[in-house]
Structures are given as C-alpha cells and as structure tokens.
Specification:
This protein is an alpha/beta fold and about 800 residues long. It has 27 helices and 30 strands. A seven-stranded mixed β-sheet has the order 5-4-19-18-17-6-7, covered by helices on one side. The longest helix has about 35 residues. It is globular and about 120 Å long.
C-alpha cells in the first residue's frame, strides 16, 4: 500500500483525536467517580464554636462536610453546657442558611428604603470619609454607636473605637447585661463584678420571677444546676419555690408556685423579712458581724436613723403584705420558715420583678433576704468569680480631636439627672435626637440591634432616624432598622467568624470561649469586628494608631496570651483529666500543659474554651467592698451618689424623684418598697405581663422556622402569637378559647388569638415576646421612664379586652 505524506499525517491525526476522545471520556468518568466517592464519603470536620442565640454562652460543635456546615451539637468539653443544648441552638443553622441574608454591602439608591449593591472598598471609603469629615469639623461627638446584646471583645473593640474617635455616645440597647453586677449588689455590697448564684449547691432556692429554666442567663447551665439540686447522691433533695404572676414552665417544675400581683415582689420580700425577724430565724451572727443598718443607728452628727429591722416590723406586717401581693399569710410564713431553716439557701431576683418603677428598691428588698439568711460568700449562696486573666490593653492615646469630643455629655443623658444611675439610656435617645438636645446627631452606627422592632419606643426611633443624615447598619438582614439605613455592611453569622465569649457570672468557674470560623462565608459579608478595624485604619491618625490590628483574629491572639501566662486554669479537656487537674490545683499544684503559646492557641481553637474551675480565692471581705466593709441595708453608696448629683447639677432633684421623692428621707437608701393604694376598676382594668419563651432567640428569631414551630405546650400554640387569659376573665368579655380578641392599651391595640389558661390571676393577661409575624406587645407598651436601666418599663402597662 502506497502511503502519501498527506495520508500519513491524516492517519496520525485521526488516531490522536480518537485517543484524546477516549482519554477525555475516561477523565470525565474518573472525575464523576471521584465526585461520587466524595459525595458518599465527604470529609467530616468538627469545629468548636459558641452559641449566640442568648446570653448563655453554650459551647457548640459544628459538623462540617467538605467545608459546609451540616449540623450542630453541644461541645461535651465546654463547662457551661457539657454537651447539652436548648432548642434555640439548633436555629443557628437556619440563621446561616437564611435565603434572605444580604449578599453583600448595600448603599441607599435615592430615597431611604431603596438600595443598590456596592463593593466593600467603596462602602468602607464612604464610612471612613464621612466619619473623617465630621471629626475634622470638630463634630466627632455627633456620631452615635447603638449596640445590642453581646459581650467580650466585640464590646471592647467598639468601646475603644468610640474613645479613640472621640464620641461619648457608645450606647447599649438591652435589658440584661450579665457581665455587669446588678445595681442593687453594687450599692449594698460595693462589688464591681457580677455576683453568681450557686444554684447547683443550694438546698433551697427562692426565685422572684426569674425564668430559670426558660430564658434567664442561659437555660442549659441552669437546668444542669437544677438537676443537681433535685438529685444528688451526696445530700438530700433540694427544694425550689417560684414566685411568678404566671404558672411558667419554671413554676411548673418548682415545689411550690406562688402567684403574685405583678410589681409587688419587693413587698413580698419585705413580708418574708418581717417573718424571719419576728420568728428570729435570721442569721444573727452574720447580721451582727457583717451588716450595717440592720438596727437603729446614730450618724456622725448625732442624728438618729431607723434601722431595717424596726422599719420592716413596723411597715410590712403580714396581713398588709398579703393584701398588697395576693399571697396568703400562711404562704408567707411557710416560705420564711423554709428559708430560715434550710442551709444553704439562696434568693434570686434578677429579671422577673424588674421593669417596674420600683426596680431598684424591689431588688434591694429581695437581696436583703440573702443577707438575713447569711448566704453571701458561701457555697450554695452568692459568690464572686473575679476577672479573667486576659492580657491588658494599653490605654487609648487620645489626640486633641478625641479629647474635645469626649468632653461633651452623652446624647442619651446616661449618668446625669434622672438617669444618673443608668449606664445607658436608649429610651431617651429618640426624643433627644428629635429635639437635637444637647446637640444633633449626624451619624448613627447600628450593631446587633433593631430598635425599630424591639423597643417600646420604636415609633419615636423611626421618626428620629429621619433626622439623622447618615445611618450605617451592620445587620446581615434587611430588617426594620437596616432598611432605613444609608449603608449596610452585613456582618457574618456567628458560624462564619472569629469571636470570643467571656463568662464571669456563673458560680464555680470563670470561662473564656474562642470560636473560629466553621465555614467560609456564604455571602460577601465580613466580620464586623474586622470592619471596625478597617474603618479605623481608613480614618487614620490616632484612631488607626489605637486600633492597629489588621484583623480581629490578631487582636484575639494578643489578648488570649494572658490566659497562657496566668499560671492557672487550663484549656478544657476530657472529664477524667480535668478532675485530676482540679484536685491538684486545689492543693496548690499547677503545671503548664503546653510548651509554647502557639501550642496553647492551637489547642484553644480545637477544644473551644479555657476555664478556671477553682478561681482565685475570694474572701467574704472582698464580697463586702462598701465604705463600711459590710453588707449595707442602708446603702451609703447610694447616699453618696445622691450627694454627688446634688453637687453636680445643683439639686439632684431628678435623681431624688426617680428614687421616690425627697420626702422619703432615709427610705431613699433602705430597701423600702411603697405599698400601692387599692385601684378601682378603670378603663384598662387588666395588667399586661410579657414573658420570653425558651425558643425565642436574640433578635426575635422570625427567620428561624424551627423555633417558630416549637409548641408552647401549656396552651398548645405555635407559629402565631397569642394572649393568655384566665377563663373567668374571658367569660366576662364573651371570649372563648381560639377566638380573636383585641388587646388595647392607652398606646394602641393589637389583634391576637385567645388562649384560655388557668395558670394566671384573673386580672392579668400574658403575651409572649414572640418572633413570628403579626402583632407584638411593643405595640401596647408605652416608653415609660426607666431611671435605673434606661431601657423602658415593661411591667406597668394596663389593658382591656374586646372580642374581635
């Protein structure tokens, strides 16, 4: 056969093409096989993280498959939850994969409410440019930062940014700051760090309305302490009494539920104190050695003062207390006898009774019971854990612009006048912005808060937003507040970012949790902590010098070194190993586990937390840091603050009025709660009580269907909000279970489905703080002055019912 040159090349080409075709098919087949193998056997990695659905701080293990988050479980090593989780934690998956998350930065396009997508460089340039311009004009103080519920170094970073930039207006919008001591504890004990309730070691717990097993400081840790109270092989079964207007899940679990007229918890506490004193069941040794103001006393100028004992015996007789609170005399006596004869016992009054006009004195009255039974500084009572040994930050080096800005008073008025005792007063913010008092606000930064949905003054906030020329939101969603912003720089969700959590308010240990990103960001979002550092860098000058870290991870790496160098505590590990270390540490032995800080940091990232279960020894004297070095029934610290207010603004009248009026005399500084006069039926005869469901996360959870469908078993409800009505009350207005009713207050009215519930007093209706669609109790609650927390009173609204 004759082979031409052309034919030779054609043959070779065809052969090569056929081979390539076969090879290509083989390659695709191999790839398909590999994909199938990966699909069938994905790489599984567990990444520790920290739940951010409530202030509990539970440790998570995030299950990832080929880098994608596929599930959540509890971190079995984490000391707060030991592997257990509440329903809220699992909603984190739906938060991550919410299809309505913003895809990236957005800028206003025309009128507010319309947006266009922009890049991060342009967005950061807009923020830094506007902030730099205001600072250059000497208007740094006209920038306000509004932050929600978070703690740890994100708070530190925002605070440092505000100080370096030169604005006094870093304002927090929240009801419960667990990392701070309660005001009553500060004034009566002088403490500067939060006290912890040692619930797990108590033999008797008296709770005034705190939703211990639902939504207090974290239901998982408290539930475990409750389990130890109930069942321990080392001691008898402990008992638990819940005082609450509503038969809540916590009340159902209690040995005794004591229904009470809302807002009268302080009066009941003083009635119990009366019984303890009258029957001489109080701890006489503790009272004599460690308290001030129990008996009558004479001041330095020779003036006579009535003590707590005689005041309580004179004013809070059991019949009087019973009439005011609705609690039978026999019940008051039995509680007092249990409290006075069971050790250790502890009295909790942190949340439920709050939100009323007598908040401070109510909490002081409740806390007085802990002193009467000598439960301060003892296991099973009230303890203090101290500070975490993290590396300190250098003080901010303020330039002239920052110093000038910080000389201005805060826009919300916190620390002055009627808000002298409040660290933040967000409820005053809208009206002050609207009236430009004491100055207009030119820029507002919103982080982790949505006041246009979650604050009783939401209507006023909306009007105030219209007066602010430049609003930046860091929300990952287009919510009620971010939709009114000029710029949105969406944050990562907590499963995508570096973050920390610091816990010093739980009994028995201090804890630092570290979370690294469990997965790559799903959208073009950024960790707001990183963005703050980037804005600082772009702003330049001393702002940049005071926040020199390139990213939040670098900042955390520096601060955590203090734990490594502390010479105590350890990275969490297996229970057997921890038990041995705990025993050795209590005996004074401690050996480092890691050869270098890098090893320590890597282990912390893999296991999720550092803790010190022994803590530093804290003496009773350290728990009593008042001027008298004693527990003060007569709060001399409060007297000093009033005197300072008088000296500072001339009269101090606003603060005195907030405390009840000057004519109260010494009662201003004693745990004295006024007994209200009987009310006649009026236009709004019912009392409104709001409560938080265990399944309601921070922010409401409206985008987490798993949580919305969690049933409220006591009324068989889910998905839709409801109002709980006593059957007698419902019959009085012709309402049956399942009917639609109007709940109306002086502020407005909302339409809800009626749920008949016998676990309440007839004159009270209850509405859950519900995250789903539909009416919210904030549409009923007026923005009444709250001088002690500055948030707004949530427990004073009166309503009426009308069949819809």
């Amino acid at each position: 056969m004759r082979v031409t040159r052309r034919g030779f090349f054609q043959t070779v080409g065809v052969a090569a093409g056929a081979a390539a075709l076969v090879k290509g098919k083989l390659a695709r087949a191999e790839q398909a096989g590999e994909d199938l193998r990966r699909w069938a056997t994905p790489e599984e990695v567990l990444v520790p993280s920290v739940c951010q659905q409530c202030p509990g701080g539970c440790g998570l293990m995030v299950r990832t498959l080929d880098g994608e988050v596929a599930g959540l479980s509890g971190n079995p090593l984490h000391p707060i939850n030991r592997g257990a989780l509440c329903p809220k934690a699992f909603g984190g998956l739906q938060l991550l994969y919410d299809p309505n998350r913003l895809k990236g930065p957005m800028a206003r396009a025309g009128e507010r409410g319309r947006f266009r997508s922009i890049g991060w460089d342009e967005a950061l340039s807009m923020v830094a440019g506007r902030l730099s311009e205001l600072r250059a004009k000497g208007l740094s103080h006209t920038v306000a930062i509004l932050g929600g519920q978070y703690r740890g170094y994100r708070d530190t970073l925002w605070k440092r940014f505000a100080e370096a930039y030169g604005t006094p207006n870093y304002i927090r919008v929240r009801c419960l700051p667990p990392e701070k001591p309660a005001l009553a504890h500060q004034l009566m004990q002088g403490v500067t760090t939060p006290l912890s309730y040692d619930l797990g070691e108590a033999q008797f717990i008296l709770s005034f309305g705190a939703g211990l097993l639902e939504a207090w400081l974290g239901p998982v840790h408290v539930s475990q302490a409750f389990a130890r109270l109930r069942r321990s092989g080392e001691r008898p079964r402990g008992r638990f009494v819940q005082v609450d207007p509503r038969r809540s899940p916590t009340a159902v679990k209690a040995d005794r539920w004591v229904p009470i007229v809302p807002g009268t918890d302080g009066i009941l506490a003083l009635g119990i104190a009366n019984a303890l004193i009258r029957e001489e069941l109080y701890d006489k040794e503790f009272i004599e050695r460690h308290t001030f103001g129990f008996d009558d006393w004479v001041g330095q100028r020779g003036e006579a003062h009535e003590g707590f004992k005689n005041f309580v015996l004179r004013e809070y007789g059991l019949i009087t207390v019973s009439t005011a609170t609705g609690v039978p005399v026999r019940t008051i006596l039995e509680i007092a006898r249990d409290l006075g004869t069971t050790k250790p016992a502890v009295v909790v009054g942190e949340r439920g009774p709050a939100y009323g006009p007598d908040d401070l004195h109510t909490r002081m009255a409740i806390h007085s019971l802990n002193a009467l039974i000598g439960s301060i500084g003892v296991r099973g009572g009230l303890l203090i854990q101290g500070e975490l040994p993290l590396s300190p930050l250098r003080p901010v080096q303020k330039d002239e612009a920052a110093a000038r800005g910080l000389e201005h008073p805060r826009i919300d008025g916190a620390g002055r006048g009627e808000y002298f005792l409040a660290s933040d007063a967000p409820q005053a913010l809208p009206e002050r912005i609207l009236s430009a008092t004491p100055y207009p606000i030119n820029a507002l930064l919103l982080f982790a808060t949505n006041p246009l949905a979650n604050h009783p003054a939401k209507e006023a906030f909306a009007r105030a937003f219209d007066r602010i020329p430049f609003i930046v939101s860091f929300s990952p969603f287009l919510d009620e507040s971010s939709s009114r912003a000029d710029l949105i720089l969406p944050d990562h969700t907590y499963l995508e970012r570096w973050q920390d959590d610091q816990v010093t308010h739980l009994a028995g240990f201090t804890c630092f949790s570290l979370a690294r990103p469990a997965a790559a960001p799903l959208q073009q979002t950024r960790n707001t902590a990183d963005v703050v550092l980037q804005i600082a860098t772009a702003t330049g000058g001393s702002v940049a010098k005071n926040l020199p870290w390139r990213k939040f991870e670098d900042f955390l790496f520096e601060r955590v070194r203090g734990l490594y160098e502390a010479g105590r505590g350890y990275v969490v590990s297996a229970p057997a190993e921890e038990s041995l270390r705990k025993i050795l540490e209590r005996q004074g032995y401690w050996t480092p586990e890691f050869k270098s800080y890098d090893e320590f940091w890597a282990a912390l990232g893999k296991r999720g937390a550092w803790w010190d279960p022994t803590g530093l020894p804290v003496s009773l004297e350290a728990l009593l840091a008042t001027p008298s070095r004693k527990f003060e029934f007569y709060a001399s610290g409060l007297k000093r603050l009033v005197d300072e207010a008088v000296k500072r603004d001339g009269t101090g009248e606003a603060l005195v009025q907030a405390l009840g009026g000057r004519d109260r005399g010494d009662l201003l500084y004693l745990p004295a709660v006024a007994i209200p006069a009987a009310r006649k039926p009026e236009a709004f005869p019912l009392r409104l009580n709001t409560y938080r469901l265990m399944s309601r996360p921070l922010g409401g959870g409206g985008n987490q269907p798993w949580l919305l469908e969690q049933p409220a078993v006591h009324v068989r409800a889910s998905w839709e909000a409801w109002v709980e009505i006593h059957p007698k009350t419902a019959a009085g207005v012709g309402v049956k279970g399942g009917d639609w009713v109007w709940v109306e207050s002086a502020k407005g009215k909302i339409r809800l489905k009626a749920k008949l519930y016998t676990g309440t007093l007839p004159e009270i209706v209850h509405i859950p703080l519900f995250g789903g669609e539909g009416a919210k109790p904030n549409d009923l609650i007026a923005n009444e002055t709250d001088p002690f927390r500055g948030f707004g009173l949530l427990n004073t609204t009166r309503v009426r019912l009308l069949k819809a």
